[in-house]
Amino acid sequence: MSFEEELDSSVYYAALSLNSTTLYTYDNVNFTSKLNVNYSELVSKNLGVINSIQETRINSLKLSSNVILNVANSHSASPRHVFTNLMLYYHKKLMKNNNLITIIVLCNDRMLDRFVYNLMEKIMDEYLDRFYQTENGGLNFEFKNRLRDIIVDHELKLRQLTSKYGATTTDDLDEIRDLMTENIDKVLNRGENLNALINKTSQLNSSANSFRRRTVLVKRKLWWSNIKFLVLIGSTVIFIIYLFIGLECGLPFYTRCLHPSKPSQPHQNEY
């Protein structure tokens, strides 16, 4: 891969800040050391402007045009100049406690926009899921390594896609950029559809659990209703039997059957 091709598929600098305080940085010295501009000063200046409005937003802006990179020349002692246009991408997220998390990515303007946005989303999700709530000194180095791994992994995937399409000229590269953007959009749309499906599945599971609980309650009510009905029927039958026996033995305590009167003795006639 030529230097120019690597230039178009590499992140020069990335940073994550919390309330405008930079916590983590990634610096690709293969490129930043060759720039003839103070990129860190450019980033710091624009970070204040970007964070001046407290809101969730993802966007980009052009920093400098025709920036010179001094690249070693194998055919001459003097370095050759490679021109590039610096783009600054940012993704800021306002949390419920008003903390503002901002991710900055500095790269070539020929980098795929969708690729950079996807990269920043990945970094933001990783930080929020694993490090934001447990932020402490022990995790700084761990996330700094994780930030580097995420960027390097995404750069590798981009180069593999570029190599797969086999771009050879500038026109080819422009066409490939469009094709790759379209494909990445499709992948992201599938991801959004998958997220929607997951949400619907979760809602169906919740509905199923609610239905199951209601079913159990209905079963219990029916069981109690059956018990009450059986008790009522049994009580009615017992009462009817009580009445029938009472008609023969006397109500209410069956005195004629339980305590029958002794038969009277016949009187003898006196002669």
Automatic annotation (TrEMBL):
<dbReference type="InterPro" id="IPR042855">
    <property type="entry name" value="V_SNARE_CC"/>
</dbReference>
<keyword id="KW-0472">Membrane</keyword>
<keyword id="KW-0175">Coiled coil</keyword>
<dbReference type="InterPro" id="IPR001388">
    <property type="entry name" value="Synaptobrevin-like"/>
</dbReference>
<dbReference type="GO" id="GO:0016192">
    <property type="term" value="P:vesicle-mediated transport"/>
</dbReference>
<keyword id="KW-0812">Transmembrane</keyword>
<keyword id="KW-1133">Transmembrane helix</keyword>
<dbReference type="Pfam" id="PF00957">
    <property type="entry name" value="Synaptobrevin"/>
</dbReference>
<keyword id="KW-0653">Protein transport</keyword>
<dbReference type="GO" id="GO:0016020">
    <property type="term" value="C:membrane"/>
</dbReference>
<keyword id="KW-0813">Transport</keyword>
<feature type="transmembrane region" description="Helical">
    <location>
        <begin position="222"/>
        <end position="245"/>
    </location>
</feature>
<dbReference type="GO" id="GO:0015031">
    <property type="term" value="P:protein transport"/>
</dbReference>
<comment type="similarity">
    <text>Belongs to the synaptobrevin family.</text>
</comment>
<dbReference type="GO" id="GO:0012505">
    <property type="term" value="C:endomembrane system"/>
</dbReference>
<dbReference type="GO" id="GO:0005737">
    <property type="term" value="C:cytoplasm"/>
</dbReference>
<dbReference type="InterPro" id="IPR051097">
    <property type="entry name" value="Synaptobrevin-like_transport"/>
</dbReference>
<protein>
    <recommendedName>
        <fullName>V-SNARE coiled-coil homology domain-containing protein</fullName>
    </recommendedName>
</protein>
<feature type="domain" description="V-SNARE coiled-coil homology">
    <location>
        <begin position="165"/>
        <end position="225"/>
    </location>
</feature>
